Amino acid sequence: MTFTLTTPLYYVNDRPHIGSVYTTLAVDTLARFKRLRGEKVMFITGCDEHGQKIQRTAELASLEPQQHCDTISDAYAATWAAWGISNDRFIRTTDPRHKLLVAQFFERVQAKGDIVEGRQQGWYCVACEEYKDDAASATAPDCPIHQRPLEWRDELNLFFRLSRYQAEIEALISQADFIRPASRRHEVENFVQGGLKDFSISRINLPWGIPVPGHGEHTFYVWFDALLGYITALLEPDDPADLDVALARGWPAQLHVIGKDILRFHAVYWPAMCMSAGIEPPQAVFGHGFLTREGQKMGKSLGNSLDPMRLLDICGADAVRWYLLRDIQFGDDGDIQQQRLLDLVNNDLANTIGNLLNRTIAMARKWFEGVPNPLQLPDSQHPLALGAAAASAQLDDHYGQLAFQRAAQDVLQLAIAANGYLSERAPWTAIKDPAKQEQVAEDIYAVLETTRLVGVLLAALLPDLSARLLAQLGLPPASDWQGQLHWGQLLPGQPLEEPTPILQRLELEEPL
Ligand code: MSP
């Protein structure tokens, strides 16, 4: 069975920002973990390219919408390549096959009797592409997310009969694992309990959208089109534009990872749309929190946004992955602080893990010309072996809950334990005593082997650093956790090259 998991499809109104990087790094980590566990993974990301917001952005730049979308989509694809993201698909909703799939999906929903004409009145946020309030107040309220005045709309549209799915959606969201983390489930439950209302799925006078079959002047509401991108993305390059073919390739998605602001679309609207079309709804939705920077909301207008490419150039992917995933509990809001980033990266990666590798290899080379070859190899009951086994076992659980922070901390603890073991055993003193040579050989072997396991366990979180660490132990990048997490695989007697730092300490004078 394929484990299909997705990031949101990002709007192309602007280049990637740190929020999209955050979601994508998290999903990448989970996808890598699943692959290391031997699962077949379909990791989908991409761009959401239609709608008024994109049309307006293109107009402001005096570009044709398609031309604008091509430029920004390319920037997204280049960003993910630069960050080493392991996505299997990159879907653009302007893909010609996507347009055909949206039409097929609509026809199914229509055949079910779930499309009706209606009049939509209300205050609309173009940046959210969402109606926020249907109370006809005289002055425009502000969008709570964008803090900009909403726009009044009064249109004849096509509606999706969401209200028909009240009972089914209530049953779906009451499943323990459908909406995660649990705290977010209550938000959605409250919304659903308030009674589901039909929502408009088309727009008139909006040329930048997919035409609605049989309704010449209408284009699809951008969210109706975008969510379906998750299904179109499943098509192989040579597949025909056929909804059933796409579905057979890996639907339902096991997991949509999104920010908390778009939870309702994924946990309510989208499953109901699937039910209407006779398609299984996605199996789980995880809504993560929002990032701020030094306590402030980030934004272009505020002049404090973090350019992902600059961040990557200055810090490197490993450092940013470590900082974001180790410091913020995934699901909660988080604050990016430069000093904290430096401290964690330097302490955890350069000092704790880097020095462990460096000094252990240095001792192994000096005293044993490589991996020691003691008469008795430390066995799986060695305290470090037990620690490594416990960490490995817990990681499964942590990743299952998208608890990246705990996964990172458990691996770090293992490295701390290995450093502690060295201090306790003080091989640098023991080596001077001829009677203790065997003991030193055993200790150094145990610590080197633990370092290898730290490297393997870091492979999903920090793929590059993990590969550099393992290379210094003469090993290829981790590829199979089932096989590589057993104790005692480092070859005794194997020569080791002179160690090099796995990460340069980060020193930053200027703000990022
Ligand atoms: N196009 C829609 C998604 C359609 S999915 C079929 C969209 N795109 S977006 O580009 O505006 O947002 C993408 C994601 O970035 C959302 O999950 C949003 O929550 C997230 N973030 C935007 N700003 C963020 C932060 N400051 N911090 C963390 N994530 C944030 O919505």
Describe this structure in words.
- There is one protein chain.
- Helix 2 packs across helix 3, helix 5 (166-173) runs antiparallel to helix 6 and helix 13 packs across helix 15.
- The protein contains 19 helices and 14 strands.
- Helix content is 47%, strand content 14%.
- The model has no long low-confidence stretch (mean pLDDT 96).
- The strands form 4 sheets. It has a 6-stranded parallel sheet with strand order 3-2-1-11-12-7, with helices on both faces. A 4-stranded antiparallel sheet has the order 5-4-6-8. A two-stranded antiparallel sheet has the order 9-10.
- The chain has helices spanning 18-36, 52-60, 65-82, 96-111, 166-173, 182-193, 222-227, 229-232, 243-248, 263-276, 308-315, 317-327, 338-368, 383-400, 404-425, 427-430, 437-457, 463-472, 481-484; strands at 2-11, 40-48, 89-92, 115-125, 130-133, 151-160, 179-180, 199-200, 202-204, 218-220, 255-259, 285-288, 291-293, 334-336.
- With 512 residues, it is an alpha/beta fold.
- The protein folds into 2 domains: 2-289, HUPs (Rossmann fold), CATH 3.40.50.620; 313-484, Isoleucyl-tRNA Synthetase, Domain 1 (Orthogonal Bundle), CATH 1.10.730.
- Bound molecules: 5'-O-[(L-methionyl)-sulphamoyl]adenosine.
- The site of 5'-O-[(L-methionyl)-sulphamoyl]adenosine has 19 residues, from strand 1, helix 1, helix 7 and strand 11.
Short structural summary:
With 512 residues, the protein is an alpha/beta fold. It is built from 19 helices and 14 strands. Strand 1, helix 1 (18-36) and strand 2 form a beta-alpha-beta unit.
